[in-house]
Amino acid sequence: MTTIEVNGLRKRFGPSVALDGMTFVVRPGHVTGFVGPNGAGKSTTLRMIVGLDRPDAGTATLGGHRYAELPCPMRHSGALLDPHALHPSRSGRNHLRWLARSQDLPDSRVDEVLSQAGLAAAGRRAAGGYSLGMRQRLGVAAALLGDPPVLLLDEPFNGLDPAGIVWMRDLLRGLAEDGRSVLVSSHLMSELQDMAAHVIVVAQGRVIADAGVDDLIGEYASLEAAYLELTAGVGGIR
Amino acid sequence: MILRAEWLKFRTVRGWAAGLAAAALIVIGLGCLAATSVTMSCMEGTREVDCPAPPTDSSGRSVSDRFTFVHRALDGDGSITAKVGHLDGTITYPPPGHDEIVRGVVPWAKAGLMVKDGTEPGADYAAVLVTGSHGVRMQSGFTHDKASLPVREAWLRLTRDGDDITGYASADGATWQKIETVRLDDLPPTVQIGLFVTSPNGLTVEENPQGGHAVQARWTQATAQFSRISPAGGWTSSLVGYSDYRTTWEQTHPPGHTEAGGVITVAGAGEIGLDTEGGMAVERVLTGVFAGLLPLIVVAVLCGTTEFRHRMISTTLAAMPHPARVSAAKAAVVGAVSLAAGLVAVGVTLPVATRMLRANAVVILSVSWPTMLRVALGTAVLLALAGVFAYGVGSLLRRAVPAVLAVTALLVAPPILAVTSVLPADVGAWLLRLTPAAAFAIQQSVAAYPQLSRPQTVADGYFPLPPWAGLTVLALWALAAVAAATWRLRRSAA
Q: CATH 2.60.120 spans which residues of chain B?
């Protein structure tokens, strides 16, 4: 049971404030939605959790540990941040194999996650020929490689066909039910409404709502209505 | 784990392995191509003959060893003393007219006393001698040279005590000055001791305004008088290293000695030193390294830049959140595969190309086996360090084209520009000290020595730094590039 704790993250990129005291906790056992306008700081927060950006202030920890301190960090947290981060002439399977080497995992684990992601056949082709949907599936496979208790997914539904969307929804829900902490950033409110039990709404680098999905629906009729109401008048990109 | 991940990354991009294979094949191919296209023939008077292989010294190096030796056997320890002077000689057809034979002595004409392990060319020796214009010297082992009195006429003494040979010089025959003691290992109980004279080719060097220079060489002969020889008598004359051929001048003034009233006059022509002109330097078959470096540089640069071009660096650092260790592991992988490619390239090229050359009657200058090993392994290490350097520059600049251009300009261009005399000699020499191209000094099989009477500049293929110092310069550049790339990676991943 690992929680994600984000505490007072601040970050400036030149003159613009990307994060302005971002604080929230993601608990295991259900999918948590992470929503907000473009430029609200979602991606930056996710990158900071896995140590790719350094905050000016604040901390992000997984079960009390900073990501970069963990040996074999992908066994603690799997992340899908950028589905295009691939070498185009390396096969999908080999992409997972080097990741497996880096986490001291066997190649058998690579074949497990490849079939879990529905890429058993395509895995031996060069990744440069993959559609966006296939890249998303490969990214999910990479995130699942270390069988981590924490999953971070940035826009996982992008580029998926309808069957893919259903697959992704069932997969994420199942992963959460196994007791994992699952944080999913998305613009698709209807998807989140069906899948997430909790939602964190951010704007201008800070949390503006952190509530159960059922509570928000009770108050605003739908997640989409709640989102629009909460973020009304808050510009995303400054 | 990081190393294993980076190794798998490298070998799963098919183009990279292919690029390295291409690098090795280019080195091998160009080496063999060069070997088939070289021919060598020598003139003996007006007759064209296969070039004779120069003699080798006790360490296996090709040497020039040609002089007139008036000698006798020395059993056990002993010494010889003589007054050496009246150095005179003949220079054939010097400038400006090139139309007459003149009287004269070239700067490195030599006359003096010698102890030698027999009269075979290449045998160990030590000598104390006067020269045309470099004063009294003590020389041994074909490359060792120590200066003494700045005079052209002197009393000289050479003593043997076991394996130690000591040379002395005196201006008046009364007060003696010890020059030095050299050790000739495993010298047999009986050696040859005596008087010798030789005279290397007279050279004139014409600087080319477009860079480089043209060297003209002409045959010379020297004579010297030896008097007050002690002990005297019992002389045999040997023409060490001479062929049967005689120049027109020698037909009327043959090399050898004459004795009159206790004064022995000796005439000789030749050189005692390393041979750099009687054959091809072995590293010439590795010239393909320049071309082979190009695919190697491209592959090594891409190992650094693709991480950024495809934003893969985020995935890499999320999996292995240790920029310094990732950078070091990548450098190690690129270095190791470049070393492997280099070992294959050198390991095939050297034996195959030298065999082809010998089959073509081309003489290859012999080198000692440590030198051969240094040239071979050093070239492979040069390729390994070049790979690490190119990876570092690629990873630092994060863009392939500027990185490939920068590495090529720093590593491949300077030696080509310097040796082909596109640059002024001084500029070329400094480039080969300061740029990563200094590393090509590791291939230099025949070093420069000031007492060898021929130009030994960058344009003649002599590198300004000693071999390992040159390789160290490239190692430092590689280290600096990887360190700078790591520093940039720690500051910002993308």
A: 63-274
In the chain, the amino acid numbered B112 is: G
Of residues B167, B120, B119, the one with CA closest to residue B139:
B167
Q: pLDDT tens, B111-127?
A: 999 999 999 999 999 99
Q: What is the pLDDT of residue B493?
A: 66
Say yes or no: A79 contacts chain B, CB-CB below 8 A: yes
Angle between helices A132-144 and A92-102 (to 10 degrees): 20
- Note whether B320 contacts A: Cβ–Cβ < 8 A: yes
Residue that has been written with the tokens 């509570």 in this structure: A215
Digit-coded pLDDT (tens) for A18-73: 999 999 999 999 999 999 998 899 999 999 999 998 999 999 999 999 999 999 99
Distance from CA of A208 to the nearest CA of B (A): 28
- Say if the Cβ atoms of B306 and A87 lie within 8 Å: yes
Burial of A150 (0-12, 13-18, 19+ CB in 10 A): buried
| A60/B contact by beta carbon, under 8 A | no
pLDDT tens track for A194-232: 899 999 999 999 999 999 999 999 999 899 999 999 988
Yes or no, beta carbons of A98 and B12 under 8 Å apart: yes
Give the containing element (helix H, strand E) for A210.
strand A206-212
For domain B63-274, is the CATH number 2.60.120?
A: yes
Contact A102 B306 (CB under 8 A): no
SS3 B29: helix
Amino acid B447: pLDDT: 86
pLDDT number for residue B208: 76
Domains along chain A with CATH numbers? 4-84+148-231 (3.40.50.300)
Write the residue in A51, A85, A90 that is nearest to B321 by C-beta: A51
Report, in angstroms and rounded to the nearest whole number, the Rg of chain B calculated over CA atoms.
Answer: 28
Give the pair of three-digit tokens for residue A127.
């990744």
**What is the rounded CA–CA span in Å between residue A25 and residue A45?**
12
Nearest CB to B314: which of A52, A68, A103? A52
Task: Report the residue from B310, B493, B494 with minimal CB separation from A86.
Answer: B310
**What is the ipTM metric for this complex?**
0.92
Chain A residue with Cα closest to B315 = A85
Question: CB B315 to CB A67 under 8 A?
Answer: no
Residue B494 banded pLDDT, cuts 50, 70, 90: low
Q: Which two tokens stand for residue A83?
A: 């589905």
DSSP label at B288?
Answer: T
